[in-house]
Write a structure and sequence with these properties.
Layout (H helix, E strand, L loop, with lengths): L1 H18 L8 H23 L2 E8 L3 E3 L5 E6 L12 E5 L2 H59 L7 H33 L1 E2 L2 E2 H18 L2 E3 L4 E3 L9 E2 L8 E5 L4 E6 L12 E6 L6 E9 L26 E7 L2 H7 L5 E7 L4 H17 L5
Antiparallel strand pairs: 1-11, 1-15, 2-10, 3-4, 3-9, 4-7, 5-6, 8-10, 11-14, 12-13, 12-15, 13-14
Amino acid sequence: MDLLLVLTYTAICIAIFKIFKIPLTKWTVPTAILGGIFIVGALILLMNYNHPYTPYGKEMFVTTPINPLVRGVVVSVEVEANTPIKKGDVLFKLDPTGYAAIVKQKRAALVAAELEVPQLEASWEMAKAAVVRATADRDRSKSAYARYEKGRKRGGANSPFTELELDNKRQLYLASEAQLTASNAEALRVRLAFESNVDGVNTKVAAIQGELEKAQFDLDQTVVRAPADGIVTQLALRPGIVAVPMPLRSLLSFIPDDDRIFAGSFWQNSLLRLQEGDEAEVILDGAPGVVFKGKVAQILPAMAEGEIQSGGRLITSNIMTVRGRAIVVIELEDQDEVIKRFPAGVSGHIAIYTEHFAHVAIMRKVLLRMQGWLNYLFH
């Protein structure tokens, strides 16, 4: 753009010399050259300092790498390249045979586990009945033992109950007491198994339900769907490719219909004048002669050239020699028109007009439009 200003001044000087028939002498030519150095130099300094310009502008957009969550062989590709699709539309399908078999196994196991619940309830009822019976046996044995023991004490040597009979009754009583303890323990075990619930569901049934849900989820993932509205471009996926759930290499790239942003890289000294909300104009390489208006939406607070991360290697001094450029995000007024007319990632030039030396901004606007007209011939 500076070259355009120099060429414009040169053209004006030639026109003045021709129109007014000024002779080319050792005074007129150096005067024109020195005047151009001072005038053009001052204008360039004022313009570049107060109204920054960059030829490095580009529309940025986000792509979503698509990888399946399960491993499988691609059996069909349902999407067409460069065709708008809606959220939930099928992109491609994997062979579901193995995952469908696992779902069938888990469903059978769930039915078996659900049938065990009434069996556990029946077992608990039987255990409670066994406790009642053992209690009755214990009470009968205890009563008999107490009667024999009382008769033995009253009769003394003349008692009709011998010591052997009394000992037998005592052993029967102790055996019935042990049987009651065992019945109570069995009843407790069966009750805990029957009442072991998670959110009102038997724990074994709940566990198999979880396994079934996981198996069903894996089966559902054999059908890969669009995560949002958008398009798939440069589609190279074909049936027979083995899909692996690893983020290292995606099967296709999905471009969602999110808002695109137009950004440009500016020299760091341009930040002395730039502010959010400043007026901006953009020309695109694909739209010669058209100027898109906008404003500064954001000045990114970091530059990648100064980034460091924790690692096992020392940072070389070469990183200090790279001069970073500030990235400025431009909000275009005709963003929808740009999205409709041009492919994502178009390049262009950006000029920003600050509140300082506003009269110089007119020259920047003229030069920007001249640069836009040159796009008819160059890029």
